């Protein structure tokens, strides 16, 4: 049996859960009673008339995979879905009754992250090239960390997902002493064999990257080298 939950809190956030899929909507107060610039409306996924509430508009967004934000007008009862986040969109004129919401889909505690239910993983690839320290800081700015590959299931999933990505090299968490994989908090990872076998030449000061074009090897490289990176944030579901 599937139980449908709907919670509207006093701070303007809406939560809707349905069978392993969760969507949060947070109202963008600065855009209330405004119209958006035409660039945002170019990303319109569809419109629905006679929508009586925010929660119904939210349900429409939940059923569209690419929906990242929506507009609902309490006067006209028009619901409009967008394939981009409108959180940083510029207002363009006045339209009474308009309300805008950014959404956070699935089980991640940070907007824009990819949720995989099988591994309970919330992650995101970043194409901007940075050294290890700056990549780590970028993840921490999202209240996360560099991605920790802690199981063969996560590793298999990532290889499938990254196979189509344009980037080839990504920072991940950890280093190796040639015998063990050591994560950033100093603990010894249980997922050692794959990395130790594929890490290549051991640099005692190196940090791990995934090298896609080299056959998805883990490589221990100079932390000042410039690479893409993978961040991980907390899931909403217990591990």
Automatic annotation (TrEMBL):
A Pfam family that the UniProt record links to this protein: Lectin_C
Signal peptide start-end: none
Span of domain C-type lectin: 108-232
SMART domains per the UniProt record, alphabetical: CLECT (SM00034)
UniProt cross-references to InterPro entries, sorted A to Z: C-type_lectin-like, C-type_lectin-like/link_sf, CTDL_fold, Pan_app
Protein name: Uncharacterized protein LOC111126638
Gene: LOC111126638
